[in-house]
């Protein structure tokens, strides 16, 4: 029997021998096929790696990073961090979740031209708030100043347990803007006045030039067409004698 098996194995290709052994294993051990499945417990997708290595804020001068951290940093660099998106579901417990906006939200205006609360789409009476966002990251407490734009109702929820600072255009900047506008108008008026004066001077110069040219032209044409006066015989004789004695 053993000799027959050896002769069969020696004449069978490796792949066929593999299939034969697997089939024999399945027939002899019912239910053992579960052991042939690949272990997928350690499989990770890109999004899983990003979630594991995600940071709300990254240090620009970060040193050497693992490829997992580099992937998370690359995702972070694609986020838009001017305004944040928040979740006020548990605002009564003073728990607010925040994240940065993605490109799709920036294009649609979510968080800037409409309310930045995750479940709200109101775009009326928006107000900008600066929040000292405290969060726990890998067991370490961190803080970050974040700006969010909320409607009137969501603003009340945000400030229900703690009053946050509202970001508004300062009066000083408004006054400076008005001063700049006034000075610009004055500069324009002064420039226009100078331009008018310059144009008037140019007109006077042009008129003087035209007068001089007219006088020169008259002088040039004054002798044209006029015949010289005929000299008397005595005058001609005196001229002859004068030339003779020279």
Q: What percent strand?
A: 15-25%
Average of pLDDT: 78
Note the overall shape.
elongated
Rounded to the nearest angstrom, the radius of gyration is: 49 Å
| Widest sheet, order of strands | 4-3-5
* Number of helices, counting only DSSP H or I runs of 4 residues or more: 8
Amino-to-carboxy terminus distance? 164 Å
Secondary structure: helix percent? 40-55%
Content-based structural category: alpha+beta
What's the main sheet like? Answer: 3 strands, antiparallel
Total E-strand runs: 5
**Sequence stretches where pLDDT stays below 50 over 5 or more residues:** none
H and E string = HHHHEEHEEHEHH
Distinctive features:
single chain, 246 residues, alpha+beta, two-stranded antiparallel ribbon, elongated, Histidine_acid_phosphatase, phosphatase activity, Folate-sensitive_fs_Fra10Ac1, Protein FRA10AC1
Description:
This protein is of the alpha+beta class and 246 residues long. Among the domains are: 9-33, no CATH class; 79-171, no CATH class. It has helices at 2-11, 14-28, 46-53, 67-77, 103-108, 152-158, 171-222, 233-244, and strands spanning 80-87, 97-101, 127-137, 140-150, 165-167. A hairpin with a 2-residue loop joins strand 3 (127-137) and strand 4 (140-150). It starts with a helix and ends with a helix. Helices cover 49% and strands 15% of the residues. The mean pLDDT is 78. One of its GO terms (molecular function) is phosphatase activity.
């Amino acid at each position: 029997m053993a000799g027959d098996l050896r002769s069969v194995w020696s004449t069978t290709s490796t792949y066929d021998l593999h299939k034969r052994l697997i089939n024999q294993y399945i027939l002899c051990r019912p239910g053992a096929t579960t052991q042939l499945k690949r272990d997928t417990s350690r499989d990770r997708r890109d999004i899983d790696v990003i979630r594991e290595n995600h940071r709300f804020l990254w240090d620009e001068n970060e040193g050497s990073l693992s490829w997992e951290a580099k992937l998370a940093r690359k995702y972070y660099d694609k986020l838009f961090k001017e305004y944040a998106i928040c979740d006020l579901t548990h605002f009564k417990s003073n728990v607010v979740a925040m994240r940065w906006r993605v490109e799709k939200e920036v294009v649609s205006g979510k968080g800037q031209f409409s309310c930045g609360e995750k479940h709200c789409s109101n775009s009326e009476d928006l107000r900008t708030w600066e929040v000292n966002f405290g969060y726990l990251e890998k067991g370490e407490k961190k803080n970050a100043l974040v700006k969010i734009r909320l409607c009137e109702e969501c603003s009340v929820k945000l400030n229900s347990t703690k009053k946050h600072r509202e970001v508004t255009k300062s009066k000083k900047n408004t006054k400076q803007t008005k001063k700049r506008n006034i000075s610009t108008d004055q500069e324009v008026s002064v420039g226009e006045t100078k331009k008018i004066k310059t144009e008037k001077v140019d007109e006077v110069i042009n008129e003087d030039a035209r007068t001089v040219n007219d006088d020169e032209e008259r002088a040039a044409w004054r002798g044209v067409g006029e015949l010289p006066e005929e000299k008397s015989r005595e005058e001609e004789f005196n001229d002859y004698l004068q030339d003779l004695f020279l």
